[in-house]
Fold this sequence. Notes:
Blueprint: E1 11-15, H1 19-27, E2 32-36, H2 51-63, E3 67-72, H3 84-93, E4 98-101, H4 104-113, E5 119-121, H5 130-138, E6 143-145, H6 152-161, E7 165-172, H7 184-189, E8 208-209, E9 217-218, E10 234-236, H8 241-247, E11 251-254, H9 261-283, H10 295-301, E12 309-310, E13 335-342, E14 347-350, E15 359-363, E16 371-380, E17 394-400, E18 410-413
Parallel strand pairs: 1-2, 1-11, 2-3, 3-4, 4-5, 5-6, 6-7, 7-11, 10-12
Antiparallel strand pairs: 7-10, 8-9, 13-14, 13-18, 14-17, 15-16, 15-18, 16-17
Helix pairs in contact: 1-2, 1-9, 3-4, 5-6
Amino acid sequence: MSAAPALALPELLAPAGNLEKLKVAVHYGADAVYLGGRQHSLRARAANFSEDEVRQGVAFAHAHGVRVYAAVNIFAHNRDLDGVAASLAFLQEAGVDACIVADPGILRLARQHAPGMPLHLSTQMNVSNREHALFWQEQGLARLNLARELGCEEIAAIRKAVRCGLEVFIHGALCIAYSGRCLLSAYFTGRDANRGDCAQPCRYSYALVEEKRPGQYFPIEEDERGAYVFNSKDLCLLGHLPVLVALGVDALKIEGRMKSVAYVAQTVHLYRQALNWIGGQQARGAGLESLTMPARFFAELANIGTRGHTDNFFLGQPDADDMLHGSARLAQSSVPAGIARTAEPLLVEARHTLVPGDRLECLLPERLQPLAARITALHDADGRPLAQARPSQCVRLTLAPAVQLAPCTLLRKTPHR
Length: 417
């Protein structure tokens, strides 16, 4: 009896908060990236893309066989609609592969001003059941980004019900509100989360005050730094990738357009290597149901800045253990040291203080295990010797062993080095 054919690997979809992050995501193996323009995107505080940068980003991605999706996914008030039609027409003209929408009004405008543009539904629309999914399929949506509050059995039921593409978040920050529908930021700061300007008050430290005892603060949970009652751990479905492949999900999405370039590099690199490993196991005849992700992938996960990790709803209802009560985030095991800008000579933009003797890890796109190297000499961009490199300074590195590093390669080191 012949083995069942291997299932195609889902698309790996990476965040691109700016042009640099787009290039880094492509370098580390993203199949697609998502970005936002200067308006109408749910990340108003990200650098985002000017029209010229959208053109550059699309050209760069397409030259490397990578798709580009543009987020136009705010919930719009009347005043927000100015310019939406022109933005949609521009995105189609610039060659964007799909637009991500949430507001039905913006969807309607997209039909009028970007006819033929594939449309993906944002997670903001809370697709949490098969009838909801069927409704949007009937409206012609090419892909649905499912609500983050779904378990694997619910995803499987939706997959059986619809033909359109399905996309699932696999890594990144979680919101305490249902699929990001939160009013805390608007209430506390006037910054509207549903129009892309969240101040993340769920990450604040809170205490209890009784109205007749002003100035007396009672901790909600005993901790020397306060109480982080809303602070969810970060989503991480790394261990469930074989299940997601088996479910027939079309795209796996990483959250983080406002995260650092190092975060983009490390998450895309990790999940690319993990998916490649699954593909290799399938090619050797292994069934997805028998696959367990090796420990080396979780060891690499420890290098990514995080609030801790949770499966969220994937295996069942989250509980108190899925919240990070002690602090806003956890310490990470390494820090970004720099980003390679040119290969010969090796010019690096420092992201941390560097001195000769520092031991670095070079994160190569073709392998999970970083390449270890030591800085033997530092020079400025003009070739003058340096005793130390400062963050944001471009420097020439001499490494031992000598290695060729392509532009966009991330270098990192442990914090004590």
